[in-house]
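Duplicate of #3305? Posting structure anyway:
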């Protein structure tokens, strides 16, 4: 399941804070800040999607992520590779290397990372 743009923005704040009350999340937004009810609605939808949960502390709710940023990004990236690159990581890597205008040193860094992964699998 995927988050909407507004949900991703809120999720980024929650990942940054690790645990947060509604007021803490609202403070992270730039002006003009959304309504508190908007944030509550987003949190409810994200909870229904199993991305966040909360624990009750008195009358307040302390929200926390159920998925790490890395895991969310990995699943999102896998979906992009599947939908736009015929489920081929090699096609994605080729596109990425050609279209992002990487410097020689950045390409060397990528090559080194790939070589490290290959060595770990041996």
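Output from current build:
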């Amino acid at each position: 399941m995927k988050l909407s743009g507004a949900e991703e923005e809120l999720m980024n704040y929650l990942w940054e804070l690790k645990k947060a009350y509604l007021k803490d999340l609202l403070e992270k937004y730039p002006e003009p800040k959304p309504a508190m009810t908007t944030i509550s609605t987003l949190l409810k939808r994200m909870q229904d999607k199993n991305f966040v949960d909360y624990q009750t502390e008195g009358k307040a709710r302390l929200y926390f992520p159920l998925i790490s940023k890395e895991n969310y990004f990995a699943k999102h990236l896998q979906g992009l590779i599947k939908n736009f690159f015929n489920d081929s990581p090699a096609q994605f890597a080729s596109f990425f290397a050609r279209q992002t205008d990487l410097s020689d040193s950045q390409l060397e860094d990528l090559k080194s990372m790939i070589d490290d992964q290959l060595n770990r699998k041996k």
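Confirmed duplicate; merging threads. The chain has two domains: 5-65, 69-120. The CA atoms of residues 21 and 62 lie 5 Å apart.
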